[in-house]
Design a protein that fits this description.
The chain contains 7 helices and 11 strands. It is α/β, with parallel strands linked by helices. The chain has 2 domains: about 160 residues, Vaccinia Virus protein VP39 (Rossmann fold, 3-Layer(aba) Sandwich), CATH 3.40.50; about 50 residues, N-terminal domain of TfIIb (Single Sheet), CATH 2.20.25. Helix 2 packs parallel to helix 3. The longest helix has 16 residues.
């Protein structure tokens, strides 16, 4: 019988390096950097900061006076701290500080269902300074239907991962099965991780923010864009 981790995203954190995310990230990060380089700001909060790679690249290029990352995965927070950046395992809605820029990178919003999305976007607006910006990216319907669906198997000798994914009625479900080598045997962990399709109109309406920019992103050389990069502003 498979062991279940304490949180599905903790399992994702363990296997992120096997999924090709780091290889695709620079092309996506470029959209964020291009916009951030065009504005004046002093503070940035990265929500769902993961291992801190985004903060490292933005800070390295822009030398932002104040940066912080938050994530609900303790493992991810520990990795961001190891990179030398302020990070905390906390829900955005429980923070008290305000920022010039909030970011949610690599389809972080797609991990929220409709109820969670509305609450999260309300907290985004609450934690932005007036005139502040929210930068995010979301998966397109084409991306869900043509990039993520199917089976994926990969190993690095110490770990063996299978991912079986399907997309139905706006919900993308992925069953992750991980075997990790422990001595002469393997430990098995299994979780189902879900993402949800959200339209651009939904994001704008629920956020109560002004849409400043919407760019097509094609990370995988497909016929259509698999992501949208969005910039929204608090008036």
């Amino acid at each position: 019988m498979a062991n279940s981790t304490s949180d599905p995203l903790d399992l994702y954190a363990k296997v992120e390096g096997l999924l090709g995310v780091k290889e695709a990230a620079p092309s996506l990060y470029a959209h964020y950097l291009l916009f951030l380089n065009s504005i004046d700001f002093n503070s940035l909060l990265d929500v769902g900061c993961g291992s801190g790679d985004f903060l490292r690249q933005m800070q390295g290029a822009l030398e932002i006076p104040e940066v912080k990352g938050i994530d609900l995965s303790p493992l991810m927070v520990s990795r961001t701290l190891e990179q030398g950046y302020d990070a905390e395992c906390v829900d955005l809605c429980k923070l008290h500080a305000h920022y010039d820029v909030l970011t949610a990178v690599f389809d972080m919003l797609n991990y929220l269902d409709k109820v969670q999305l509305a609450q999260f976007l309300g907290c985004v607006k609450e934690h932005l300074h007036d005139g502040g910006y929210f930068l995010c990216d979301i998966n397109t319907l084409y991306g869900f239907e043509n990039v993520a669906v199917g089976s994926y198997i990969v190993d690095d000798e110490e770990r063996f991962l299978t991912v079986d994914s399907d997309f139905e009625e706006g919900v993308y479900s992925s069953e992750f099965t991980l075997f990790e080598k422990e001595g002469s045997s393997f430990k098995k962990s299994q979780e189902t991780i879900r993402q949800y399709y959200h339209s651009l109109d939904e994001i704008v309406m629920l956020s109560g923010l002004e849409l400043v920019q919407s760019d097509d992103v094609n990370l995988y050389d497909l016929d259509e864009s698999d992501k949208l990069f969005l910039v929204l502003k608090k008036g």
